[in-house]
Amino acid sequence: MNFGILGAGSWGIAFGNLLRDNSQNVLIWGRRKEYVNEVNQTKRTPYLKNIRVNVPLTHDLNEFLNFTDILVIAVPVQFIREVFEKIKQFEHKIFLILNLSKGIEIKTQKRVSEIVSEFFNVPYSVLSGPSHAEEVASKIPTAVTLAGEHYEFLQKIISNDYFRVYISNDVVGVEIAGALKNVMAIAAGILDGLGGWDNSKAALMTRALYEMIKFGQYFGAKKETFFGLAGVGDLMVTCNSKHSRNRKLGELIVKEKDLSKILTNSKMVAEGMYTVKAVVDFSKKVGIEMPISNEVYEILYNGKDPKLSMLELMNRPLKNEWYI
Ligand SMILES: NC(=O)C1=CN([C@@H]2O[C@H](COP(=O)(O)OP(=O)(O)OC[C@H]3O[C@@H](n4cnc5c(N)ncnc54)[C@H](OP(=O)(O)O)[C@@H]3O)[C@@H](O)[C@H]2O)C=CC1
Ligand SMILES: O=C(CO)COP(=O)(O)O
């Protein structure tokens, strides 16, 4: 089987190297020709310092699709639709779609599987969990969750001695957990920017998990999924890691205050800043209480003072229900 990976950022390349280590055929599509040429020549990418790129890249979508049996999605969620428009006529070539991207589309409030089903009638799986590209590319032991079709086949082909794949039958839960933990990691970064307090971070992560579960259950996700690698596992790593783009964005917004200035200086994508828009819009529409997401939105997009957000979160009416 030939794996064609859409997206030549850190995760697309780290995952490509992983598949190569497992003796799979891999080709990665990148949107910028100069970047693709540079990586092919130097075997290096600015997205992953000190890592050798062991897979070829192409900018040519025809070459990419003629090669591909298993289409792997590793582009930021807001751009998936744009890329699919260009490749939808190749549906007959694709045996299976494996999604690695974590987010919710702003304009439709759709998960990746829902975007995929608008374009392709092809089996779909999603792989998610605590898996920073920098560590996977360095072959650091990592465990993740896989949900969807052909899971046994994928589990075997992707697992190795540094990458262990567990399975789940809850595609919705895995997708929602992966998308929402990015929003929560921005909140964790905001706390780090304010003072890096341990008590506050533990409280935030615990309440974040509760908020993720509430949102997920609205769509029929299973609570247990959030207690596994795709949920609490990814929440822990993203809220605490020095590698996390989302956590770093939270830290930066406290220091620099101006989101547009931060974005001008950064090439990497923090999916949570987009997902939070979809989550806040949707949760307000249907009446799900999402206090942490709301404050992240206010801080990023309405310039709210993070200290005021924290104070308001602490001073909300006390809960009179039993909580975990
Ligand atoms: N990095 C990680 O550790 C992990 C990331 N993920 C998920 O993987 C997905 C990809 O993230 P990641 O690899 O980290 O990205 P990076 O932040 O490393 O790089 C951004 C990537 O997005 C591409 N990109 C930006 N704009 C567009 C566009 N308009 N159309 C197509 N591609 C575009 C960039 O291309 P260009 O170079 O041309 O600008 C680059 O390849 C995200 O959903 C992320 O949440 C999941 C697990 C781990
Ligand atoms: O999903 C990730 C790790 O599991 C990557 O998170 P960041 O995008 O915040 O770096």
Automatic annotation (TrEMBL):
Enzyme class: oxidoreductase
Name under which the protein is recorded: Glycerol-3-phosphate dehydrogenase [NAD(P)+]
GO BP terms, alphabetized: carbohydrate metabolic process; glycerol-3-phosphate biosynthetic process; glycerol-3-phosphate catabolic process; glycerophospholipid metabolic process; phospholipid biosynthetic process
Keyword NADP (UniProt): yes
Function: Catalyzes the reduction of the glycolytic intermediate dihydroxyacetone phosphate (DHAP) to sn-glycerol 3-phosphate (G3P), the key precursor for phospholipid synthesis.
Membrane-spanning residues: none
Catalytic activity of the protein: sn-glycerol 3-phosphate + NAD(+) = dihydroxyacetone phosphate + NADH + H(+); sn-glycerol 3-phosphate + NADP(+) = dihydroxyacetone phosphate + NADPH + H(+)
Cellular compartments per GO CC: cytosol
Binding sites annotated in the UniProt record for sn-glycerol 3-phosphate: K102, G129, S131, K181, D234, S244, R245, N246
Binding site for NAD(+): G7, A8, G9, S10, W11, G12, F79, A133, R245
Family: Belongs to the NAD-dependent glycerol-3-phosphate dehydrogenase family.
Pathway assigned in UniProt: Membrane lipid metabolism; glycerophospholipid metabolism
Domain Glycerol-3-phosphate dehydrogenase NAD-dependent C-terminal: 170-307
InterPro entries: 6-PGluconate_DH-like_C_sf, 6PGD_dom2, G3P_DH_NAD-dep, G3P_DH_NAD-dep_C, G3P_DH_NAD-dep_N, NAD(P)-bd_dom_sf
Limits of the Glycerol-3-phosphate dehydrogenase NAD-dependent N-terminal domain: 4-152
GO molecular function: glycerol-3-phosphate dehydrogenase (NAD+) activity; glycerol-3-phosphate dehydrogenase (NADP+) activity; NAD binding
List of catalytic residues: K181
Classification via Gene3D superfamilies: N-(1-d-carboxylethyl)-l-norvaline Dehydrogenase, domain 2, NAD(P)-binding Rossmann-like Domain
Compartment(s) where it occurs, according to its Swiss-Prot or TrEMBL record: Cytoplasm
Organism: Thermosipho atlanticus DSM 15807
Record EC number: 1.1.1.94
Listed HAMAP family: NAD_Glyc3P_dehydrog (MF_00394)
